[in-house]
């Protein structure tokens, strides 16, 4: 089982601003409610760069190394996160919306190995609530960019 979730929302921020903000994964500290810290540890943010992300998920803290797999400005960002029992793909699509804003599609897919694979059904059940919270927070951060802040 590979739990996944896809959500689409709009923001007042222009596609280039959305892309630049989300492509700098250090900003996950602002938009991802589970992220405690996120630091760039290799590269300058381009494809192949690596981020060290410490997150709390379902009451458990874990460190995940995210590698930038794809960057297509201003339309696509693909990050692959891994640790010893987890692999996750976060794909963000950005396209022009109305009145200079953007439409953002966020897709997250997870796979687990070892003992963690037994958590997959629990993760799948938790994802809708987590997605609602994440999208609300991401949208608020992006809308703030659209306001010129």
Description:
There is one protein chain. This protein has 149 residues and is α+β, with helices and mostly antiparallel strands. The chain has a single domain (4-146), classed as Alpha-D-Glucose-1,6-Bisphosphate, Chain A, domain 4, CATH 3.30.530.20. The chain has 3 helices and 7 strands; from the N terminus they run E-H-H-E-E-E-E-E-E-H. The protein has helices at residues 15-23, 28-31, 120-146; strands spanning 4-11, 35-42, 50-57, 60-72, 76-83, 86-96, 102-112. The chain has a 7-stranded antiparallel β-sheet. A hairpin with a 3-residue loop joins strand 4 and strand 5 (76-83). It is globular and about 50 Å long. The model has no long low-confidence stretch (mean pLDDT 93).
Integer-rounded radius of gyration: 15 Å
Annotated CATH topology = Alpha-D-Glucose-1,6-Bisphosphate, Chain A, domain 4
In CATH's first tier, which class applies? Alpha Beta
Number of strands: 7
Regions with pLDDT < 50 over 5+ consecutive residues?
Answer: none
What string gives the helices and strands in order? EHHEEEEEEH
Work out the count of structural domains. Answer: 1
Distance between the termini: 41 Å
Proportion in helices? 25-40%
Number of helices: 3
């Amino acid at each position: 089982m590979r739990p996944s979730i896809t959500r689409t929302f709009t923001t007042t921020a222009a596609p280039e601003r959305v892309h630049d903000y989300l492509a700098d994964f250090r900003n996950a500290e602002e938009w991802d409610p589970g992220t405690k810290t996120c630091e760039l540890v290799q590269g300058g943010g381009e494809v192949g760069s690596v981020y060290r992300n410490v997150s709390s998920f379902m009451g458990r803290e874990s460190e995940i190394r995210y590698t930038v797999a794809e960057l297509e400005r201003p339309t696509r960002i693909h990050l692959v996160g891994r640790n010893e029992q987890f692999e996750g793909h976060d794909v963000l699509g950005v396209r022009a919306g109305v009145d200079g804003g953007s439409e953002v599609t966020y897709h997250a897919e997870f796979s687990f190995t070892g003992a963690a694979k037994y958590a997959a059904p629990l993760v799948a059940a938790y994802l809708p609530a987590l997605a609602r919270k994440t999208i609300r927070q991401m949208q608020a951060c992006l809308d703030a960019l659209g306001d010129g802040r």
